[in-house]
Write the C-alpha cells for this entry.
Amino acid sequence: MAAGAVVLLIVAFLIRESVPALSTIGIGRFLHDPSWHPAGEASAGTFNLVPMLVGTLYLSLGALLLAVPAGVASAVFCQFYAPGRVAAVYRRSMELLAGVPSVVYGFWGLVTLVPLIRRLEPPGQSLLAGILILALMVLPTVALTAVAALAAVPRSYLQGAAALGLGRWATARRVALPAALPGILSGALLAAARAVGETMAVLMVCGNLVQVPSSLFDPVRALTANIALEMGYATAQHRSALFVSGLVLIVVIALLMALVERWGERADA
Amino acid sequence: MSRNRQVLWPFFSGVLLTTLLAACGPPGGGNSEGDALAGKVVLTGSSTIAPLMTEIAQRFEARHPRARIDVQTGGSSRGIADAGSGLADIGMSSRGLTTEEAAGLEAHTLAFDGVAFVVHGSNPVESLTDEQLLALYTGQVEDWSALGGKAGPITVVHRAAGRSEVELVAAYFGIEPEAIQADLISGENQHAIKTVAGDPNAIVYVSLGAAQRAAAEGQPVKLLPLRGIAATVEAVAATVGETYPLARPLLLLTAKGTALSPLAQAFLDFARSAENDDLIEALAYVPPPR
C-alpha cells in the first residue's frame, strides 16, 4: 500500500515537472517540430519526441521478437526434455543472466558486439546492436516466467495426454503451452516493460542519433537514453521537456501493466 | 466499513510517511558553537570538475573532521545557476562565463583543461587543419582519403547537447552546435574514447586530460595537434611559447556581494592552494601558473 502511494507521488511529481513544457511548448510541437534540438527557451529550440519514441518501440519490439520465441523454446526444453541436473543448471544460469547489471551488458556490447556489427556495416552502434543486447537482457525474464508457467500446468493435463498416447513434443505443443499461455504472456509483457525502460545498455550501443531508423544498421536514440544524456545539462524548458518524455514512458509502461492485468495470469494463481 | 478502513488506512499512512520523509532535509548549513570549521559546504556543477573536487574535499575533511563537503554534478550550467541563486555555496564550471553570468559571480581559476580531437591509433593521419576539421564535422568530407588517410568512410562522433565540450568546439569553429553533422553521439568521455578505440575510422573530441590518460593506459587512441601545437597538458598551461588553442578554464564560482561562511571560504582557499597540484595532475588537468 505504501509502495502504491510512492508510485502515485512519483507520477504526480512527473506531471508537475512536465506542466511548464506542456503549457509553453504544447503537445502539438512534441509531435510535429522539425527536429530535437532543445534549448532552455521554448521558442529557441525544437522538441520533436517522435523519432525517439519510434526508436524505443523498434528496440523493444525487436528484442521481444528475438527473446520470446527463444525464451519459450528454452523453457519447453527445460521442462520436457532436459534431464533433472541439466534443467537445474539451466535455471541457475538464467537467474545469473537476469542479475547482470545493465551497464555491464552495455560495456560488453560496446567493446565486443559493436565492432562485429561494424564489420558488416559501419558505424556499428546501431538499432541492431540495441536489439541484440536488449534481447539478451529480457531473455531470462521470459524464460523463467515461462518455466514457472509450464511447471504450474496441472499434472492431470499431462497425465491425460500420456494416457492418450501423445509424445513429448505433442504434449508440450498441444497441451502444456496453451494451458501456460496466460503466464507466458505475463512474462512477455514484463519483458517488454523492462526493454522499454532500459537505459544504460541502449545508451552505450545504439549510437544516439535522433532519427527514425530506415535500416537495422542505423543509429537510434531511445527516450530513456535521451533523458540520461541530456538531464545533466538541461535547464528550464529543456528539463521540463525531458520530464514530458519521462511521462510518456510511464504511460507506455502503465499500458503494458494494464495488459498484464487483463490477459496475463500469475503462474501460481 | 472495516474492509474500507483496512485498505485506506495503510494507503494514507503511506502517503503521510512519504510526505514527511520528503519534508525532512539536511539540517541548515550553519556552523555549530565552538569549532569555526564545522558544518556543511555544498558544491554543484561540472561533472569534469566534480571528481577533482571530491578528492580535494576528502583531503580537507581529513584535516577538519567536523566539516562536510557535498559535491554534486549537474553540469556547468547548473553550477553557474546554483552559485548565483545561493542553492550552492560554490559552483563549478568547466567553461568561461558569459558577460551576463559574470555580472553576479566571482570566478576563481582552479585548473585548466583542453579539448582534443582523437582518432584511432592505427589511423595514418598525423594532423588536421582547422578547415579540414570543420569540413569533417559539418558533413562536407566523408572519406579519410580526402584527408590523406587510408580510404574508408569517416565515423564522425559528436557529444551530447549541452556538454561544455560541444559548446567549446562550436565556439572554436564559429558555428552553432546544430550545424554539426554526426554519425554517432557519445555521452561521457569514457564512452567516447571507447567508441574511437573500437573503430579505426572514427574521430571524436574529448577532454584532453581524459584522452591523454587513455593513451597512456595503452588504449589505441591518438590525439591530433591543433594549429601545429601538440595536444599535451604542457601546451594547455604554457605561458611561454604557444598555448594549445582549444583549452578551457575550470572555475570555482561564488556569488558577488554575498560573503561565504568561514568554512566555505577556508575550503575555497584550500582548494586553490598549491597543495592540491598533485591531485590536479593525477587527473591530467593543468594547475594554473602560480
Remarks:
- Residues 2 and 202 of chain B are 68 Å apart (CA to CA).
- The mean pLDDT of chain B is 86.
